[in-house]
Design a protein that fits this description.
- There is one protein chain.
- This protein has 150 residues and is of the alpha+beta class.
- The protein is built from 6 helices and 5 strands.
- The strands form 2 sheets. The protein has a 3-stranded mixed β-sheet, with no helix packed on it.
- A hairpin with a 5-residue loop joins strand 3 and strand 4.
- Helix 2 packs across helix 3 and helix 3 packs across helix 4.
- The protein is flat.
Length: 150
């Protein structure tokens, strides 16, 4: 099995590091704590946000370690990095297919679970000769709070 196939399998089945077939040095307490922090929030945190919380348990933790672990967790399919027009990366513990709304004023990111009659990738494949593996949709505008302020 190729590395790409293994990552795809992890993306679909794995919920935490202990379930992964990784060398023991890859299942560190810090990495598990970082994963839990991202999985247990809906705010789509930045690395700094995660760092500030995990550092309470690991005072010698560096921001660089958090970034490396977040990127590793993304590569393994346990979390996802959002491709936003922000200076800082945002992460999402929900790896299921869902969309996002980004407020142009406050910058908050919200999950949108929009059920479509037909899977959008299947629809696109029918219209083209492409083999679509994944897609992301981002909606931009004003959230309720910012809309009320205007």
């Amino acid at each position: 099995m190729t590395k790409a196939n293994k990552i795809f399998i992890y993306y679909k089945k794995v919920k935490n590091l202990s379930e992964m077939d990784l060398p023991s040095h890859r299942r560190s307490q810090k990495r598990q704590r970082i994963l839990e922090e991202v999985k247990n929030t809906k705010i789509h945190p930045t690395a700094m946000w995660v760092y500030q919380r995990v550092r309470k348990d690991f005072p010698r933790l560096s921001l660089g370690t958090v970034y490396r672990n977040l990127n590793f967790l993304c590569e393994q399919g346990l979390i996802q990095k959002l491709l936003l027009d922000f200076p800082s990366d945002h992460f999402d513990g929900d790896t299921s297919l869902h969309h996002h709304f980004i407020c142009k004023v406050c910058g908050k990111v919200f999950d949108l679970d929009l059920k479509t009659k037909e899977n959008l990738s299947k629809k696109a494949e029918k219209k083209t000769d492409f083999s679509i593996e994944n897609y992301r949709i981002y909606f931009y505008g004003l959230c309720d709070r910012c809309k009320k302020r205007r």
